[in-house]
Amino acid sequence: MSKVWFITGASRGFGREWALAALERGDRVAATARNPETLDALVETYGDDVLPLQLDVTDREADRAAVERAAAHFGRLDVVVNNAGYGHFGMVEELTEDELRSQMEVNLFGAVWVTQAALPILRAQGSGHIIQVSSIGGISAFATVGAYHASKWALEGLSQSLAQEVAGFGIHVTLVEPGAYATDWSGPSAVRSVENPAYADVREAAKSRPSAASPGDPTATREPILRIVDAEQPPLRVFFGEAPLRIATADYESRLATWNEWQPLSVEAHGS
Question: 207 catalytic, yes or no?
Answer without folding.
Answer: no
